[in-house]
Amino acid sequence: MNESLLRLVVPALIVVAGAVFGLATDRIIIARVRSISARNAWRGGEITARSLAGMPALLGALLGAWGAAEWLDLSARADKVVNSVLLVAAIAAFTIVAARLAAGLTRLYTSRDDAAVPSSTIFVNMVRIAVLVIGVLVALNALGISIAPLLAALGVGGLAVALALQDTLSNLFSGLQLIGSKQISPGEYISLETGEEGYVEDLTWRFTTIRQLSNNLVVVPNAKLAASRIINYHKPVHEMSVLVPVGVAYDSDLDLVERVTIETAAEVIARMEGPIEGFEPLVRFHTFGDSAIEFNIVLRVKEYVNQHPLRHEFIKALTARYAAEGIEIPFPQRTVTFAGQDHMHSRPPQES
To answer: What torsion do the CA atoms of 165, 166, 168, 172 make, to the nearest 10 degrees?
Structure first.
């Protein structure tokens, strides 16, 4: 084999050897991390394994490239360029792994029930960006580029950027305020003053997405959400009372009405999914209406959306039970007395 061919083949073999070594190391490290995490029941193990995936192979290839460059005995200038490129590539690889790991662990930590801040994309992205910025600064410093003037320039330019991006920054800080104050969190059911309601899907640096029961997404800028009135049906607790209004005829036996209503409500609650332990339905009479004695039945559900099937089943069961007991739910009507006449006419109210 002549010398020129040897100078091409040997570096290529060194690069291939480094890549093969990296691939083998990749599989060993990933398998080891998953084994340890499974043995210790650590949820972060899978996140670590996914963050490391592919990086040992890349570092092996970079190591092989460095070995090939050393074997070629390049000139001082070429050797410096190659070493700088390989160093920046290695820093970039470590930065990507660190960003993946930090973002994944942040999402894991904030998804816990006792987390100081709720899980949201805005915090995950901020952590990822912070790690990437640190990696860029480390790479610049490794190349001998002073970062002090760069930081000063960014400080001056940051003011101009802040003025140009007022709306964007307003949404960002509003999102941070919403999360920091724990007014809303992903997974909670909320209602806006504009009428939209649904589960909070995610909070990003610009907007909050709300998934309605119809499975449509409502996208609300964080600044508008922070300035609006919000009803959070998951705070302070998920459980909530449900009032079902009913009216019965004036000649009804109210003791019988109360007993039958409570029995029916208790029977419906017992067969619904996830009844509230220890809760007993209540009946509260409150108004002598135009055509009925009106009252509310107080039920209780584990969360907001459970009220709809409960109402459905309760109204059906109560209608059937009232019919069996001879309890009348009267139609709306008014008694009108005409001046100068000694008789009265009853008729349903007319729509105007």
So the answer is: 130
